[in-house]
Amino acid sequence: MKNWKVPGVILVLLMLAIAFRWNIDKNTNGSTVVKYSTDRWNGAVYYERLSSSDHSKRMIQSQSIAMDWYSSKSLTVIWGVLTCGSVIWLLFTIRDKRMFENEAENRGIE
Length: 110
Fold this sequence. Notes:
The protein has 2 helices and 4 strands, in the order αββββα. By secondary structure, the protein is α+β, with helices and mostly antiparallel strands. The chain has one domain (5-109). A 4-stranded antiparallel sheet has the order 1-2-3-4, with no helix packed on it. The longest helix has 38 residues, at 72-109. The two termini are 23 Å apart. The chain crosses the membrane at residues 77-94. Keywords: Membrane, Transmembrane, Transmembrane helix.
């Protein structure tokens, strides 16, 4: 029973996808930090300015035309749903495998 490999591989791929999603460039001028975050999934670029008295974040480049109907938040929600589904699938697969092994042991003992 090697059915756990499919949800396991999907889960690993989803983790890799979120790990490499953002490209972040930081610039520091005195006490002000400026971050440019590029969402690699849809091409959006965000500008974030952090200082002791101010915090602002805004989009400076919209998503690419191909991904225009997906915002960064909705892509994150979709990723979360897929990840939860993969984890649940993996847990059920492992549980079913253990139940099958326990039944096989019980049949062998009797």
